[in-house]
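ARCHIVE CARD
CATEGORY: sequence design from structure
SOURCE FIELD: tokenized fold
FIELD CONTENT:
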């Protein structure tokens, strides 16, 4: 019950930690999104301020052009008056004065016509006329932008148009306004922008939006509606073009960042769910292998002495003269059953380690195995029985380890070969090598041979080496591993601390 209560407690703790990690991730991500949104709003405000400053400059330039236009109109009116005086003046000095005023006009194109639109005088034409005698066609269209100024009492009219300098400056202003509109829609903040006219429905220009999709009126209307719902538009007044409105919304990056925590949780949850299923399946499979292996190992361990006891009982029935010998052998088998019971009882708990002679344990184990191994299997111990090595060890469990290693060696040799046991004593540890002449272990399997359920035998259950590793590493704080393996044999090494 304590095991299950601990397991439940750990599940609750892990669940709480998972919730805290997800909450911390959401909090941190939302904090980043909030900071990014504030920075984007700040950039939009700075961009809007720049729009207004540029707009003021445009308005100032337009006012300057208006003054320049009025100034040229006044000059033309003055010229008309001068032409009238020139026509009626009889004083030569006045004529010279009037001509001097007319000659000073070097930039404003002027045409004077009579009542039939016949050109009687022109100045500053660009290019210099084509010899036309009448104001008609394209020339009349150019000089009809402004109404003509009648010259009183003469029946003539004075036509004029903007000067070359004025036209050049006007082109610069138009280009500046065009560039200004492009800068509005292609702002550095990468914010989607739509510019509408004063009706707030007709789209003049847009930026940072898909050109193909914006060509669809339904999509454009939907996008404009989204922008209206998100932010208050920025109102601007263009010269000549009138009032306009700039709509904007969150950038695609900010929108993606807002949905990132949700996607992050879904992805993490999905992988955790898959990992839970995989680990649960793996754990159940490993537990099943362990249970099956333990059951088979128990049956195998108990089967040998039980078979011997049954054989001696049958022998007694056939010939009672063998009763004494049978009693001795049955006693040995009963003791063997006690050892087996002790071994399995210590697997689930921490066994006691007593000071014992490791040499004696090895020799006794080999003596027991020799009588129960195939006749073609030879055991060789490379150190004398008289050599005493005392260290903390659990005799029954260590003997079990040697039995498992020797049984695996017999299987690897197909019941024919040599098993050699060597032992070296060092200052702080004892090294025991179990060497066989079998077919060896593949390199890819040398690290997996100690895993529960791993076996290369058709009828094996893959538990012997797993139990050996548990006994040596967890109970004796030692090491067990494959020192070397080839087609000529395998060496398992056990290291125990003195």
């Amino acid at each position: 019950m304590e095991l299950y209560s601990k397991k439940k407690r750990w599940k609750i703790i892990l669940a709480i930690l998972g919730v805290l990690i997800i909450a911390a991730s959401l909090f941190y991500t939302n904090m980043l999104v909030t900071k990014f949104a504030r920075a984007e709003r700040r950039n939009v405000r700075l961009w809007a301020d720049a729009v207004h400053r540029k707009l003021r400059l445009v308005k100032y330039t337009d006012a300057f052009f208006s003054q320049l236009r009025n100034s040229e109109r006044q000059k033309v009116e003055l010229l008309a008056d001068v032409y009238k005086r020139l026509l009626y003046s009889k004083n030569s000095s006045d004529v010279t004065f009037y001509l001097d005023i007319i000659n000073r006009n070097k930039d404003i194109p002027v045409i004077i016509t009579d009542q039939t639109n016949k050109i009687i005088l022109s100045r500053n034409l660009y290019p210099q006329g084509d010899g036309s005698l009448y104001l008609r066609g394209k020339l009349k269209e150019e000089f009809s932008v402004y109404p003509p100024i009648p010259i009183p009492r003469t029946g003539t009219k004075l036509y004029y148009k903007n000067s070359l300098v004025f036209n050049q400056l006007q082109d610069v202003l138009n280009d500046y306004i065009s560039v200004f509109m492009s800068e509005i829609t292609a702002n550095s903040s990468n914010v989607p922008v739509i510019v509408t006219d004063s009706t707030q429905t007709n789209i003049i220009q847009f930026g940072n939006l898909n050109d193909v999709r914006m060509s669809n009126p339904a999509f454009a209307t939907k996008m404009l509606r989204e922008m209206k719902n998100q932010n208050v538009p920025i109102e601007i007044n263009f010269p000549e073009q009138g009032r306009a409105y700039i709509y904007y919304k969150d950038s695609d990056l900010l929108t993606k960042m807002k949905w990132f925590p949700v996607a992050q949780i879904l992805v993490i949850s999905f992988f955790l769910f898959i990992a839970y299923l995989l680990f649960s399946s793996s754990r159940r499979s490993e537990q099943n292998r362990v249970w099956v292996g333990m059951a088979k190992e128990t049956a195998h361990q108990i089967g040998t002495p039980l078979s011997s006891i049954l054989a001696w009982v049958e022998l007694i029935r056939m010939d009672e003269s063998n009763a004494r010998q049978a009693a001795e052998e049955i006693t040995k088998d009963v003791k063997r059953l006690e050892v087996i019971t002790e071994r399995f009882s210590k697997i689930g708990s921490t066994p006691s380690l007593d000071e014992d002679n490791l040499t004696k344990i090895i020799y006794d184990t080999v003596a027991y195995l020799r009588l129960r191994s195939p006749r073609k299997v030879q055991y060789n111990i490379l150190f004398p029985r008289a050599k005493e090595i005392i260290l903390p060890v659990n005799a029954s469990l260590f003997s079990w380890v040697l039995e498992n290693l020797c049984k695996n060696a017999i299987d690897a040799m197909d019941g024919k070969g040599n098993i050699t046991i060597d032992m070296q004593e060092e200052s702080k540890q004892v090294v025991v090598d179990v060497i066989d002449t079998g077919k060896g272990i593949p390199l890819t399997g040398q690290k997996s041979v100690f895993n529960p359920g791993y076996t290369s035998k058709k009828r094996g259950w893959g538990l012997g080496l797993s139990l050996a590793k548990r006994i040596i590493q967890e109970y004796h704080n030692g090491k067990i591993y494959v020192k070397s393996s080839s087609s000529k044999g395998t060496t398992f090494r056990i290291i125990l601390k003195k």
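CARD ANNOTATION: The two ends are 37 Å apart (CA to CA). Residues 183-252 form one domain.
SHELF: design records, drawer C
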